[in-house]
Design a protein that fits this description.
Helices cover 49% and strands 6% of the residues. The protein is of the alpha+beta class.
Amino acid sequence: MAKEGTKSGLGIGQTTIQTQTLTPIQIQTIKLLELPLVELEQKIQKEIEENPVLEDPVESESEENEQERKKVSLSEVKDDSIPSYKLYVNNRGRDEKPQYNTFSVKESLYQSLLSQLGYRKMDERRRTLSSFMVGSMDSTGYLTRPLGSLVNDVYLRLGIETDEKELEDILVNDIQQLDPVGVGARNTRECLILQLKAKENRTPAVENAQKILQNHYEEFTKKHFEKIMARLSISEEDVKEAYDVIRKLNLHPGGQVDDSYADQTLQIVPDFILENEDGKLTVTLPKFNIPQIKVSREYEKYMEKKPGVSKAEKEATSFVKGKVDSAKWFIEAIRRRQDTMQRTMDAIVKFQTEYFLDGDDTKLKPMVLRNIAEVTGLDISTISRVVNSKYVQTPFGIYPLKHFFSEGMVTDSGEEVSTREIKKILKDSVDNEDKSKPLTDEELVDLLTAKGYKISRRTIAKYRSQLSIPIARMRREI
C-alpha cells in the first residue's frame, strides 16, 4: 500500500507592491502648511541664512542701490539739480508692511515688591526672609505655599532657622502692606478682605461687605442671600450694596503689574484678509511678511558652466547643485502652500457666505473638515493643517479658522443648524434673563424647544459649561 506524503519547500517569486513615497517638495509643503504667518516668515529668513543660493530680491536691490549711492559723491552735485523723487530708495515690496501696536513692558511684580521692601525699615534677617517669601508668590500675587513648607524651604535654601509664627508676622505686617493691595493673600477670601480693610471711606456697604466675607463667606459664595440677611439682620438693599462693593474688588492683584519675563499680550498677525466690497467677498493672503525669495542668478550662471575635471571643482559643482535643488524645492513648497491656503479659505468663504456678509453667528452653517475637503479635492489632514493656528481678518474682527467649524443638528422644521447658533441663543437668553430669578437648565430647555430646537437638559449643561456660564444659583443677583 503506497503511502502519500507531503513535501514542502521554499520558493522564490516576484510580487508587486505599491507604496507611496512623498517627494521632498511634498514634505516641505506639509511642514510649511502647519506654520502660521509669523512662523513662516521666520522659517524663510532661516532658510535664506542657511542656503546661500536663496536671496530676497528686495533686500538685494536695496544693497545694490546702497552700493551705487556710495559711489556717488553728493558734494559734487547740486541739490536743486536732482528731482526729489530720486532722493529716496524704495526698499519695500508691493504690499506695505502695516504697523502693529506695541505694548510697553513695565517691571515685574517680583521686582516691584522687592523695590517697595527696600524702603521699609527692617533688619537684614527680616529683609532676607521677606524677599524669599515674595519670590514664593505666584504671578497673580497669591502666596499659595503653606507657611510650614516655607519654613523647610528657608532652612534648606538659605540656611536660616525660622518658624511659622515669624513668617506669619512678616507676611501680615510687611508683605501684605505692599502695593497693589491684596498681594500676599493665601486665598481669595483673604485677598478680598485685605482690599476692604484698606478702603478709607468706611461706608455701611463696605462694613457689611467685610462682615460678610469674614463671617459668612460660604453663604456668600453659594449666594444664599436670605441666610446672610437673617444672620446680619440687614435688608435686601444692604446686601445688594455690599455685593456690589465686593464685585468691584480685584481677584488677581498681581495682574496689575506687567511681568517683563512673560508675554503679556499675544500679537496675532492674520494669515488671510477678507474684504467685503458691496456684497462681493474677496480673500487675499498678506504678502508683507513673506520675502519674495528666488534663486540667486550668480549660482544659476555657475550651474550653466561646464563642470571642471578636478576633484575640487566636481565637489564644488555637486555642492552648488544640491543647494540649488534645495532652494527650488523650498520655493515651490511655498508656492504650493499659498495655493492650498487660498483654495481652502475660498471654499470656507463660499460655504459660509451668508455669515461673512454681516458676521451674524446665527448664520453659520454646520461645517466640518470633510465638507471643505470634498469641495477642494484636498485630503482632510491637509485641511486640518491649514485650519490649525491660522487667523482671518474680517470687517467684524479677527477670528481663528476653527471658529467657523461646528457640528449641526436638525430643528423641528427639518432645517439643519449649527451648534454655534444654539450656543449663541443660549448665551443671549442668559444675558437677558432676570438675574434675581435666573433661568434653570430645565427652563432653558423649554425656551429652546419653543424656538424649534429640540435639545436635552444634558446638552444644555454641556453647552453652558463650554460657554463658561455657571449654574442658575451662581448667576443669581439681588
